[in-house]
């Protein structure tokens, strides 16, 4: 099956113009940004993108080299400079709200200190945090979560099957992923909409500059979030709690290890909320969009659910929910013959790198009969996604349950009416209204 029907051919000569149009968040370009970034890769695996003042790394091996090298490439700006700017401003406004509410010094959940954690941290801080959090992502924990994920998926489908239509993003994918992470973070499932709202607001920081009003809204959400999770952390501490928050808070710490601070725990809760919802939710929505346009593929997967994991792996290589990661060079470093000077921002375009023709045959084709492929969808090196197995299980079960209960899934609006998320990093739909027939 070849690339998106609606992606038009382009010439490599206007590639920088094409890429800039994606950066300007033009809806037409956001529909299929990968064509522009494929073109950029054709210009070289590491190129200077003057309009954005970044080194764009689009070759597979080169991207892997940068991701592997946490000594020369810092993750402090991993979500991009706009995100870092938005975030710093939001955190300072949130700290002001905490002070205004009398939550100063030790009583404020975070006070003025918002430590960088995991994906945003560099060694040795990252190494210590990852070692403390990693056991909570064990394969056994993921297996134990599976039946609950299926129950949550069925609960959401129960609400829409009679109707025979739904907005896949709001009523299924995002709702499901936020319910899963809500329960993993030791919160009642009835609070999932609140957590989902916070995640949406925080995610806005990625990929564009925010307005003053948006920054205020985000600061308010951050303040509420800190207050809320401050209590949750106290609830699980020292208790025999099975969920992920319990596992993280109560992880045994060796004598010479420093336990996670409250500030680190709160920041980790936010990272898990975002990491555990947006990417898996976008992937599920994107897959349903694809299946609505390729009903025979939906029928094939329904008839052979055992093929779903290979389909998901290949789909995520081919169409990634978050397309790029950022690093900052902390030393002069050469990658593929290009000198990247200290202080430079490096955009690792993992979606383009995962279609590098030097690594994949016919990379623009979604072909899940090919042997298992490596891809950079979950990153690489020391920051490789801790939630990869959980994320894949979430998407698989969401698809299995949907295909078991709905057939003839089709778009309920014209393709041209679908709006993409206005972000250079995130790749997904704002809504996905579909019609379907219920399987009795
Ligand atoms: C389709 C689903 C997912 C995708 C595509 C994805 C993608 C990624 C990527 C690319 C990174 C590396 C970031 C970097 O190198 O800068 C990452 C890191 C991370 N992800 Fe995921 N993720 C997914 C699901 C999840 C889930 C479900 C969770 C947890 C609930 C999660 C938790 C994390 C954490 C904690 C890190 C930081 C790891 C570290 O820095 O050591 N992710 N993810």
UniProtKB/TrEMBL annotation:
| PROSITE patterns from the UniProt entry | CYTOCHROME_P450
**Record's family?**
Belongs to the cytochrome P450 family.
Q: Does the keyword Metal-binding apply?
A: yes
Question: What name does this protein carry?
Answer: Cytochrome P450
Which Pfam families does its entry note? p450 (PF00067)
Supply the SUPFAM superfamilies for this chain. Cytochrome P450 (SSF48264)
Q: Which species is listed as the source? A: Pseudonocardia ailaonensis
Indicate yes or no for the key word Repeat.
no
Record-linked InterPro entries: Cyt_P450 (IPR001128), Cyt_P450_B (IPR002397), Cyt_P450_CS (IPR017972), Cyt_P450_sf (IPR036396)
The UniProt keyword set, sorted, is: Heme, Iron, Metal-binding, Monooxygenase, Oxidoreductase
Coiled-coil annotated spans: none
Q: Which domain of life is it from?
A: Bacteria
Matches recorded under PANTHER family: P450, PUTATIVE (EUROFUNG)-RELATED
């Amino acid at each position: 099956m070849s690339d998106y029907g609606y992606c038009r051919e382009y010439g490599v000569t206007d590639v920088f113009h094409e890429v800039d149009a994606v950066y300007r968040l033009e809806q037409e370009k956001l529909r299929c940004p990968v064509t522009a970034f494929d073109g950029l890769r054709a210009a070289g695996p590491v190129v200077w993108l003057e309009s954005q003042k970044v080194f764009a790394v689009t070759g597979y091996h080169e991207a892997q080299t940068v991701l592997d090298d946490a000594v020369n490439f810092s993750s402090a700006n991993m979500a991009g400079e706009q995100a870092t700017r938005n975030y710093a401003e939001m955190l300072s406004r949130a700290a002001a709200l905490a002070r205004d509410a009398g939550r100063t010094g030790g009583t404020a959940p975070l006070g003025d200190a918002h430590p960088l954690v995991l994906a945003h941290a560099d060694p040795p801080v990252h190494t210590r945090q990852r070692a403390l959090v990693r056991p909570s992502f064990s394969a056994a924990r993921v297996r134990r979560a599976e039946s609950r994920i299926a129950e949550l998926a069925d609960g959401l489908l129960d609400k829409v099957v009679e109707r025979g239509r739904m907005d896949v993003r709001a009523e299924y994918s995002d709702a499901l992923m936020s319910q899963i992470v809500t329960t993993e973070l030791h919160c009642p499932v009835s609070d999932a909409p609140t957590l989902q709202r916070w995640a949406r607001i925080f995610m806005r920081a990625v990929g564009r500059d925010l307005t003053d009003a948006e920054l205020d809204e985000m600061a308010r959400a951050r303040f509420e979030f800190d207050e809320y999770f401050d209590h949750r952390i106290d609830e699980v501490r020292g208790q025999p709690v099975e969920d992920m928050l319990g596992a993280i808070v109560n992880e045994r710490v060796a004598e010479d290890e420093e336990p996670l601070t409250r500030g680190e725990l709160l920041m980790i809760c936010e990272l898990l909320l975002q990491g555990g919802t947006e990417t898996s939710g976008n992937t599920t929505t994107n897959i349903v969009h694809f299946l609505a346009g390729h009903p025979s593929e939906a029928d094939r997967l329904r008839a052979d659910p055992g093929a779903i994991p290979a389909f998901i792996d290949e789909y995520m290589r081919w169409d990634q929910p978050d397309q790029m990661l950022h690093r900052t060079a902390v030393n002069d470093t050469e990658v593929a013959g290009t000198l990247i000077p200290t202080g430079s921002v490096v955009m690792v375009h993992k979606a383009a790198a995962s279609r590098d023709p030097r690594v994949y045959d016919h990379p623009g084709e979604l072909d899940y009969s090919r042997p298992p492929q490596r891809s950079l969808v979950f990153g690489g090196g020391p920051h490789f996604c801790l939630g990869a197995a959980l994320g894949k299980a979430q998407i698989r079960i969401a698809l299995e349950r949907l295909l078991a209960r709905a057939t003839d899934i089709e778009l309920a609006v014209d393709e041209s009416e679908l709006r993409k998320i206005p972000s250079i990093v995130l790749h997904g739909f704002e809504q996905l209204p579909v019609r379907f027939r219920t399987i009795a």
